[in-house]
Design brief:
The structure is a single chain. With 493 residues, this protein is mainly alpha-helical. It is 48% helix and 11% strand. The protein contains 20 helices and twelve strands. It has helices spanning 3-10, 12-24, 36-53, 73-86, 130-133, 139-144, 146-151, 154-166, 173-176, 191-196, 203-224, 231-234, 238-251, 316-323, 348-357, 378-387, 391-398, 401-407, 419-447, 454-486, and strands spanning 94-98, 105-109, 118-123, 128-129, 253-256, 263-267, 275-276, 283-286, 292-296, 308-309, 334-340, 363-369. The strands form five sheets. It has a three-stranded antiparallel beta sheet with strand order 3-9-8, with no helix packed on it. A three-stranded antiparallel beta sheet has the order 4-6-5. α2 crosses α11 (203-224), α3 crosses α11 (203-224) and α8 (154-166) crosses α13.
Length: 493
């Protein structure tokens, strides 16, 4: 064990900050919610930790540092393609192209590609998997800390990636050297970046994700202080762990484990260079020998054009948090809105009980979306209708409570309590979205004159996409109020 390996784990200032961060990452057990003031403390301590750990990060003058962090793209691509071909990957109609920041690498058509044509096959032997990590030199760590790695199986892949990154002559070296070194994901955000995110619906979720990953790092740091027997542990800084987590988080998929008893979390070389576009999901796992990932073109592609795949039906907030981009077009976009019965409401207990009997919490988050049919769930509508009940209207509802609880009657679009009550319901939903929109519009107006970097541009795109969802709900409420005014009997209890 050399002196430099000891330093990172025996540096008293680093160890102290790790303990302080662990304390700061503890969320209140009664709410499991993180407040921004607490989050700022985490960011400040993490900034100090990064400063103290700088000398332990990979550097050109350190022999064990992977070339990944000092790339030569032309050589890396040739090496990667030769590796793929050596182990029978198929991609005759594709070329790899570097697009620069923030896109990075992507695939382009080397000839015209027809819709539904198979464009690539990646055999199982090239796939980077959790299954392989469980047979590696660090498998004993997973066994000794079974609870942590059972709860977070992707963490195995994060550590396995670090192991292979620093391993001399790793089988996966050509692939690892193609992985990005920069990300636009929230784990790389500054305090100023987070402040711009404050009025988005995913702000709390983003803080919790960030806090969770910091906590995982601190736990692993303490764990590795007892092992220290792998080269990557010498470089186990927050920056290195963050890089590994972002690689896994943004590229992970699942395929059948070789035992066929469970799914395995994996990275799929070459396939993960495809960028996203709204369309059809055209990738599947072939269990015909040799087992492989097979991907077909979802649309016709001319030679020289970028080849895209559809990552799946996800919200813009999900793309933002886990992939580090916001799509230009996403019909699957949706966002969370928090609603609760106020303790000061004189009917609070009665409303809470009625909601409980319908299987709904008195305080919860609901999804609103871009649907033309109904841009929220039946439970959302049921909650708001109960929320808006006054004493007389509650009497009407309780007079036929079985009707409400057995069929969730109040969650049906065209049925309410009274026309007057329905006015309150649709005006409440509309006004809630108007207020949330105004908060975002104020932030956008404040920032519009400033010069933006890539992170700020992405946050702005997220904010505009949220305004679009709020606008869809406001528009829908307007139509329902028009219907109510035209035909109030439609909403009679």
């Amino acid at each position: 064990m050399n002196a430099s390996t000891k330093l990172i784990f025996d540096n008293k200032e680093v160890v102290y900050l790790i303990e302080e961060l662990l304390k700061a990452c503890q969320l209140p057990t009664n709410t499991n919610v993180i407040q921004y003031e607490q989050f700022e403390v985490i960011l400040d301590k993490l900034f100090l930790l990064q400063h103290k750990q700088k000398r332990y990060n990979p550097a050109k003058n350190v022999p064990e540092s992977p070339r990944l962090f000092f790339p030569d793209f032309s050589k890396d691509v040739d090496k990667f393609q030769n590796w793929l071909l050596t182990f029978d990957a198929e991609f005759d109609s594709l070329d790899i192209r570097y697009h620069g920041d923030p896109i990075g690498f992507g695939l382009v058509a080397s000839k015209n590609i027809q819709e539904d044509e198979i464009i690539l096959k990646v055999p199982r032997c090239l796939i980077f998997s959790t299954e392989l990590s469980e047979a590696s030199e660090i498998a004993h760590i997973f066994l000794e800390n079974e609870r942590l790695f059972t709860e977070l199986p992707s963490l195995k892949l994060c550590l396995y990636l670090l192991l292979e990154t620093f391993k001399e002559n790793s089988f996966y070296q050509p692939y690892v050297e193609m992985l990005p070194t920069k990300f636009l994901m929230p784990l790389h955000f500054t305090k100023e970046d987070f402040s711009k995110l404050r009025f988005t619906s995913c702000f709390e979720s983003t803080m919790k994700l960030f806090t969770s990953v910091v906590k995982q790092y601190c736990q692993l740091f303490k764990m590795f202080s007892k092992h220290r027997n792998q080269t990557f542990m010498k470089f186990f800084t927050w920056d290195m762990f963050k890089w590994s987590v972002c690689c896994i988080m943004s590229r992970q998929n699942k395929i059948p484990h070789t035992s066929l008893q469970r799914e395995d979390i994996v990275l799929i070389p070459l396939w993960d260079l495809c960028n996203h576009k709204q369309g059809r999901y055209m990738t599947y796992f072939s269990d015909t020998e040799p087992q492989s990932i097979v991907c077909s073109a979802m649309e016709f592609c001319k030679a020289g054009e970028s080849v895209y795949i559809h990552y799946g039906n996800r919200t813009n907030a999900h793309f933002f948090m886990y992939q580090g981009f916001v799509p230009e077009f996403n019909p699957n976009d949706a966002l969370e809105i928090k609603l609760g019965i106020s303790p000061s409401d004189p009917l609070q207990k009665t409303k809470a009980q009625l909601l409980y009997d319908c299987g709904i919490a008195a305080s919860s988050k609901y999804i609103i979306n871009l649907s033309d049919q109904m841009p929220f769930s039946a439970n959302f509508l049921l909650f708001v209708r109960v929320f808006c009940l006054n004493k007389d209207e509650m009497g009407i509802v309780l007079g036929d409570k079985d009707k409400i609880t057995s069929s969730k009657y109040l969650g049906k679009l065209m049925f309410g309590v009274t026309p007057e009550h329905e006015q309150k319901v649709w005006k409440f939903i509309s006004m809630r979205c108007v207020l949330l929109s105004k908060q975002l519009e104020k932030v956008l107006k404040t920032e519009q004159e400033k010069e933006e970097n890539n992170v700020e541009i992405m946050i702005r795109k997220l904010q505009w996409s949220e305004l679009k969802v709020y606008g869809k709900v406001i528009e829908f409420c307007g139509k329902m109020l028009d219907t109510l005014n035209t035909c109030p009997i439609s909403f009679s209890f």
